[in-house]
């Protein structure tokens, strides 16, 4: 698998509270993670960093050649361990009270992808003929849309569009949404924070991502640049994964 990630503070925020990670581990799994922290006083930065570090550590410890059910359980338990870590620290130190983060994480093995997520950071599958959102936002506006109380157009400008109804680390017990699919050779897996999806629409993301003349790192850079050109009022982070020649160079956490 070929995987890259990029992150930018954007034009408005003083601190980048997003974190991303992408690498093929020694146990054979390619993992990709995006976390978008929240909490103020840089607590969001702490929460997203703890989330990524904990999940990476837990997934690195997984045995090789696990079956699909075991990989699913391993990813879910890694995310729940991250929730325990963040919640415990927030409970012990008042400057971190109410800190939390979104999370979207993928484990890829032999084209089989397992995705776990909490919050409104998203996963997409992008191919020549479509872009498909794989995750469902755990946000207030999405819940209102689901109930038919507001339209998609109204959601884009809703005064509480940033409110999450589920996040990592804010509650002692949390539910992880987990899904599975097969990543075909002609498809690209995209994980991103809402700093991308609130700035540019799915059609623009699709147009940039499907350009066959561009290497993955250039596509990632162009997605980031387009979000910043559109306003860049939030941190913006993307991870891209394709089934190509394995990347031997380690891609670590953003600073």
If you had to describe this structure to a student in words, what would you say it looks like?
The chain is of the alpha+beta class. Mean pLDDT is 91; it is low at 246-252. The chain has 7 helices and 11 strands. Strands 2, 3, 4, 5, 6 and 9 form a 6-stranded antiparallel sheet that branches. A 5-stranded antiparallel sheet has the order 1-11-10-7-8. Helix 1 packs antiparallel against helix 2 (68-92). 32% of the residues lie in helices and 26% in strands. The two termini are 24 Å apart. The longest helix is centred in the N-terminal third of the chain and has 25 residues, at 68-92. It has helices at residues 43-60, 68-92, 140-146, 152-156, 194-197, 202-209, 216-229, and strands at 2-8, 18-24, 30-38, 100-101, 103-109, 112-118, 122-127, 130-133, 177-182, 188-192, 236-242.
What does the average pLDDT come to?
91
Strand content: 25-35%
| Helix share bin | 25-40%
Order of helices and strands: EEEHHEEEEEHHEEHHHE
Number of distinct helices: 7
What labels describe this entry?
255 residues; 32% helix; globular; 5-stranded antiparallel sheet; alpha+beta; 6-stranded antiparallel sheet
How would you sum up this structure in a few lines?
This protein has 255 residues and is α+β, with helices and mostly antiparallel strands. It has helices at 43-60, 68-92, 140-146, 152-156, 194-197, 202-209, 216-229; strands spanning 2-8, 18-24, 30-38, 100-101, 103-109, 112-118, 122-127, 130-133, 177-182, 188-192, 236-242.
């Amino acid at each position: 698998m070929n995987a890259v990630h990029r992150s930018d503070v954007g034009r408005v925020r003083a601190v980048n509270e997003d974190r991303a990670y992408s690498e093929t581990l020694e146990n054979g799994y390619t993992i990709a993670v995006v976390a978008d922290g929240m909490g103020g006083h840089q607590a969001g930065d702490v929460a997203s960093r703890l989330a990524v570090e904990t999940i990476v550590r837990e997934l690195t410890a997984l045995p090789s050649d696990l079956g699909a059910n075991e990989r699913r359980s391993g990813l879910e338990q890694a995310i729940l361990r991250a929730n325990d870590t963040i919640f415990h620290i927030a409970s012990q130190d008042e400057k971190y009270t109410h800190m939390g983060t979104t999370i979207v994480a993928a484990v890829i093995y032999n084209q089989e992808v397992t995705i776990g997520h909490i919050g409104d950071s998203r996963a997409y599958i992008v191919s020549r003929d479509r872009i498909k959102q794989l995750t469902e936002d755990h946000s207030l506006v999405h819940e209102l849309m689901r109930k038919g109380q507001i339209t998609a157009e109204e959601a884009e400008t809703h005064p509480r569009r940033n409110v999450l109804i589920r996040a990592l680390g804010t509650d002692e017990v949390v539910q992880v949404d987990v899904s599975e699919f097969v990543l075909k050779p002609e498809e690209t897996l995209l994980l991103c924070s809402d700093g991308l999806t609130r700035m540019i629409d799915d059609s623009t993301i699709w147009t940039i991502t499907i350009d066959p003349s561009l290497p993955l790192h250039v596509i990632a850079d162009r997605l980031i640049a387009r979000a910043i050109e559109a306003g860049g009022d939030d941190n913006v982070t993307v991870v891209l994964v394709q089934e190509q020649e394995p990347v031997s160079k380690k891609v670590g956490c953003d600073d």
